[in-house]
Amino acid sequence: TAIRNLALPLGKLSGVPAEGTCYDAFRQFQAQEVELLPVRRHGKVMGFVKRKVLMHRLMWELRYGDLQQKK
Question: 47-53 long-range CB contacts below 8 Å, 24 or more apart?
Answer without folding.
Answer: 49/16, 49/25
